[in-house]
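pinned: reference chain
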Amino acid sequence: MKKNRIILALIGILAILCPAMFVFVPSVRTSYAYVDDQSPTVSEIISEGNVNADLVKQLFIQLVGSDDYETVLSSATAKKSASEFSSANIIVSFGNMNWTAVYLSTAKDLVSAGDDQVILTLMLSSATSETTQYSTWHPSGSGGEAWEIPTAMYSTSHVRSFLNGTQYSVSSRGTSASSASDISLTDGTSVQNSTFKNFIDSYKDYIITPEAVSWQETQSAYTSSQSNNNLPNDAWGTMPNDHFQNANNNYSNRAHNSDWNKDYIWLPSVAETGTSNSATDGIWALTPQQRSYNNVWLRSGAHSGTYHYGCYARPT
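pinned: its structure tokens
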């Protein structure tokens, strides 16, 4: 990759089709999705395969108050959250969709190799109109969280397949499962939403995946948010059992735990978004306006309980 290039990490927000099961619910500010009617503060930055340099400079100014790349790189190396940007609630038009800027950082391994790479993480600024399930099945008895493929594992979830067309877990018993042997993986190509498929096909050369992002490798909801526990799926790397409700809620050693780190679009986590409107809550330290989504899926799994799926965000 060339030096002096800004790349993007993207996350989607999906509305919920919630089964009648218990879920852990972080509390967030009330209001629907995010401001659907807010105009972009930076117009379409990539058009017909060409990056608009003037608009990128405009974006730099809104992020750090300067269009000088070395200033941007310095801020990215130190990391900069949404609440610290020079302009609040930045909206970038990218791929004919509006995204809000949430975090400025650098690539995990490339900087030490001398190939400086600034990463701007963008969150879809409004929830999709579609709803989808986190998982299509639940365990019918106790102990399901200890299975190799739990119902709350994001990497094998139906909701991830909706975004990326990846394989997801199904049960031979339909919507329930009595043992780990009931669970298998199935192809998710037909499940992927066409809008996200077309977007990824068109813009993946401008997007970096989580495997190159250090703060996603070992992030902790206990450390970065007001959660009392670490949560499954937040980190794609290996995590100690410390601060998980129990060892079974730590998916680090499960075969598919890190699969999602190669995705171009992914759901946010509790560690990233936080659970309150505190200016320091969550890695991204989102503004109250950015936290105003309502009933949308997060990738975080619930901290305990056999019947839990994933976490979702709803108004207080």
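why pinned: Residues 278 and 285 are 8 Å apart (CA to CA). Residues 53-64 form the longest helix (12 residues).
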